[in-house]
Amino acid sequence: MTEMVAREKNVALLDLLDRIVTKGVVVYGDVTLSVADVDLIYLGLKVLLTSVETADQWKRATAEGRIGSSEAGLPVVLSHLL
Amino acid sequence: MNQALYLYAITEARPRYRVNQHGLEGGTPFCLECGELAAVVSPRDGDGPVPLNIDLALRHEAVVEELSRELATLPVRFGTLVRDEAVLADLLSSRADACKEALDRVRGHVELGLLALSGEEEPPTSQPPGSGREYLLGRLQEERRLDARRSRAQLEFATLFDVVRALAVDSTLRISPTRKLLLSAAFLVDRERVDAFAREVRRLQEEHGSLSFVCTGPWPAYSFVGEVLSAVTLGTEDEASRRPVRPRRPRLRSETSSKKADSYV
């Protein structure tokens, strides 16, 4: 059961990150200096993983949201979803 | 060092509204009003690309969520930088009608995610192939199995959609975005109906024991704001040539090529 809850929390985080990075208003044009363009976070998650340097950093980030943290951490998302 | 503005969202204007959340990279978010609209930005030292990491993504989300609770809000995609206040004001005034229309659509609504995961056990890993032929046959079988599962997922979603669509005003769907994720849907739901939606999802879970449903949110309406500012400077070849370089984007096989076909409403 605990494993199931952890899995669902990780799924929720992935779902949120997918929104932030691949959805939302896109401002094209010469007014835009840059825009992150990482489509398909489900596949591109490795990009995020490389920036998660320590478990502490990961826990700080998740503590800000309603997502909750998982001791298993982000790799669980990968193993369950990719 | 060049200065830039990090753009979080476009909202309805509310005089003297102060953003409580702190912004990305130490910047303090503020509202830049333009008529009935406001762009919420924070100053940034440097105009290089914003690095993509979880801390920054969640900081972006924290600001947008606060705005969404207080104001009709169009979330902007993570990592959007603009030069200065003047270009932003031009941008908003030139696309004011489209922005207001989009704000009207999301006002009072939230986005809910609904994911269906396979409850099936993965087949045991087979022995290493003895020959190239065996390897190719193995791959073929795997592909057929995935195709069959995608077809099944579409049927499952038809049922799922009928139940929850009555509670949503708009929706999107992706079939099998990854091997273990059968369905990924987003629904635009009246804030007052979130509990009812969650109840329906619980009922779905009881009825479909072979799948695992995960309902996420409520989120700002990322999936339903369209690309209201995307046409601003795409009018001529000359302007198009000045667009920032965007890397090629891989497409999922299961994604449809037309955005319209991807939506069920």
How large, in whole angstroms, is the Cα Rg of chain B?
22 Å
Largest interface in this structure: A-B, 47 and 70 residues
How many domains make up the coordinates of chain B? Answer: 2
Largest sheet of chain B, in brief, is:
5 strands, antiparallel
In terms of per-residue confidence, which ranges of chain B show pLDDT below 50 for 5 or more consecutive residues? 231-265
Residues in β-strands, percent of chain A: under 5%
Strand-residue proportion of chain B: 15-25%
> From the helix content, strand content and strand pairing of chain A, which structural class follows?
mainly alpha
CATH architecture of the largest domain in chain B: 2-Layer Sandwich
CATH class of the largest domain in chain B: Alpha Beta
The N- and C-terminal alpha carbons of chain A lie at a distance of: 21 Å
The proportion of residues forming helix of chain A, as a percent range, comes to 55-70%
Helical proportion of chain B, percent range: 25-40%
Would you mind describing this structure in some detail?
The complex is a heterodimer of chains A (82) and B (265). Chain A is mainly alpha-helical and 82 residues long. Chain A has one domain. Helix content of chain A is 59%, strand content 4%. Chain A contains four helices and one strand, in the order αβααα. Chain A has helices at 2-22, 41-51, 55-63, 75-81; one strand at 32-34. In chain A, helix 1 packs across helix 4 (75-81). The longest helix of chain A has 21 residues, at 2-22. Chain B has helices at 54-70, 85-94, 96-106, 132-165, 194-207, 237-240, 259-262, and strands at 3-12, 30-34, 37-45, 73-75, 81-82, 109-118, 168-175, 181-190, 211-219. In chain B, a hairpin with a 5-residue loop joins strand 7 and strand 8 (181-190). The longest helix of chain B has 34 residues, at 132-165. At the A-B interface, helix 1, strand 1, helix 2 and helix 3 of A face strand 1, helix 1, strand 5, helix 2 and strand 6 of B. Strand 1 (32-34) of chain A pairs antiparallel with strand 5 of chain B.
